[in-house]
User: Fold these one by one.
Assistant:
Number 1:
Amino acid sequence: MLDQETIRTFIHVAESHSFSKTAEALFKTPAAISYRIKMLEEDVGTQLFMRTTRIVQLTPAGDHLLERCRQWLAWLDAMPGELQQINHGVERQVNIVINNLLYSPQAVAKLLAHLHQKFPLTQFLISRQVYMGVWDSLLHDDFQLAIGVTGSEALANNVSMLELGGVSWLFVVAADHPLAECEGPVHEDKLRAWPAINIEDTSRNLTKRVAWLLPGQKEIIVPDLSSKLECHLQGLGVGFLPAELCQRYINSGQLVSCEVANQRQPSPLSLAWKNEAGKAVEEIVALFQQRDEAIGDFLQNIDLSA
């Protein structure tokens, strides 16, 4: 009923609105094209085209079939390559989770451009998570690779890791914030008077972590690092930001770095991946091992010596 020739004929008639144009394009007679469409309508038991002397238009059922036929044809055209890909150990889909601290649209686009060129038939899905949410996605969801898991030791036996370096932190406030005038280490009793700007851990199964919050201190929770940075710039609250991220705002005078009594230690981050992963994941691991340009933007906030 819906062999490839019928599907292609139906699509061509639907797009050209003409049996004669379709016949010319497919090197058939108009009568042959008309007969094939007539047999298709009889097979599916409903009218697919409204015919006039001037034009051929799809019925609502024809519109629906056109969408499906395009999907089927694309699937049929891609199938030989997909089968070859599977035999060569290349995944049909790779899900990648990225730590919010390392995420940027530019970094994601550059990596995906590289991967699409090398694995054109593989589908890639990107997720952005916070703190233990990165580990959670790798261990409990269908993700094969994580960029920026916390720590340097795997939380499961089936996971391999590559240390990337660490994120160094600076305690910063807006230039016009009262704490900006403080000299020497600022103690907790003064810090507690101002809200802590934090990003909530997105973990659902593992224990959530809080980046920095003093007992009794008000907390303002924002969804991502860009929002947290903007809250600091607006003088809304206080807290730690990645040193690499906020240094240019310190240089411009928009932010001031304060010395605090309990300085936050660098946070080690790693690349982590499932051991049974295929060729596409192996390619990503190799890019990070070689510090390739395709993944360079992910390392902008990383201190390689930390």
Note: The chain has ten helices and twelve strands.
Number 2:
Amino acid sequence: MLTNETIRLVKQSAPLLAKVGPEITAKFYHNMFTEHPELRGVFNQSHQTSGSQPLALFSALAAYATYIDQPDVLNDAILRINHKHVSLGISPAQYNIVGHHLINTLKTELKEQFTHEVEQAWISAYQFLADLFITAEHGLYQHALQQVGGWQGTRDFYIDEVVNHTPNIKSFYLSPCDGKAIPKFKAGQFVSVFLPASAQTTSQIRQYSLSAAPNCKYFRISVKSDGLVSQYLHTLKAGDTVKLTPPAGDFTAKETNRPKIYISAGVGITPMLSMLAVHSQTTPDIEAYFLHANKMFEDLGFLGEINELGKGIKQFSVTNWLESKEHNALPGFMDISAVAASLPCAHGEFYLCGPLSFMAAIKAQLLRAGVSPSRIYYEVFGPHENLPSS
């Protein structure tokens, strides 16, 4: 357990972090990658370049320093990070590397303000948090390994079929090369795909939501071609193989009798497809609403699948927004007020996935419509960030 003195010193140093800002975490990553280039593949390098990864780590550090005496405040964020770490295959040894470089960077950048006592407090606080993460992730690793069809680490899958849905989104049906069973995941979860190293790049890892209901024979991922790994996947064909980690993620539909409202933009539709499929199969008497935003009609490549799944649900509706003002869709960006009167805002559960700016805007609209923040759930592609509370 952390001592009161450790807690006091860490909380006291929170304003020091605010003064230096995300630049301190950018320097941490630079130092760590210089000494351990093998870790570049674990961290999305485009997020490093854009600054979103250093910003996310800085925000996490600041939050930990602020709430070190109220850890329950951070439970949801920690659980989400645990799942991301498991999907990346993070090991206890890597926590030691991160801790070493993090403390050294704080010491170098904060200089005389980072006294020996503050340094020791941060070492204790980091080790305490690392132990919590390692223990929680060990449990997730064991669960993935011990369930029927489960495994730990990577497993080879071959591509059964590739389906083109839109000009830039393809679905890949993936079956295990060993012919053995695969686990029954929860709708909304994802798998990690490993891009092998090449002369141009180190090995890279990306998460992709599973976009169909759990099936004992295959996984399906639906991928937009807009990044290094995604573009690589778009070059593959039936018969090619990929390496996957077991399904992970805490963005899953709650097993309640509340109406479900699935809200997405762009390729954020993928976990919603899985949730809707399970909803149709298992709880057809619970009403469902599907709200989606995209640029033009040709981007609505899953519309037929959505309508087909909706046929099995007693009360179901689909509303699309298109920037291009075409087809039978509402024009422009998604505006919840246009449909709020028909939604169960007082008691429904709202699931969001899409660009961060989209989800922040929709959450604000839902709050104005009277939806409780406790009934708004969301998934973030890339570094975890919390949506504004208002």
Note: The chain has a mean pLDDT of 89.
Number 3:
Amino acid sequence: MAYDEELAARVRDAVSERAPFTEQKMFGGVAFMVHTHMAVGVGGDELMVHVGTDGHATAIADGAHEMRMGERTMRGMVAVPPQVTADDDALHAWVGRGVELALATPPKPPKKPRSP
């Protein structure tokens, strides 16, 4: 699945204003990793936001929908349709949710190298 490059550029700018990050190809799109955690991403034309289980219901009430991977619902992750993120202020608010959660979570320990 291709992803919206223009949305990715807008998200990249919004994340860079808040925290250092890396990018990683994930879910057929691109994920923005903050503090070793996926904060937000872009899949197709939608913004993916890690809101955590505590923020899930609020995010749904604010216009997002549950994120699904095949038959599995990804609790704590939401997809935000393009009409909800068309406005830069709205996009920045959604990105802020994901970045704040990533920064509040202890970083993951480095992965051990695979043995040959």
Note: The longest strand covers residues 72-80.
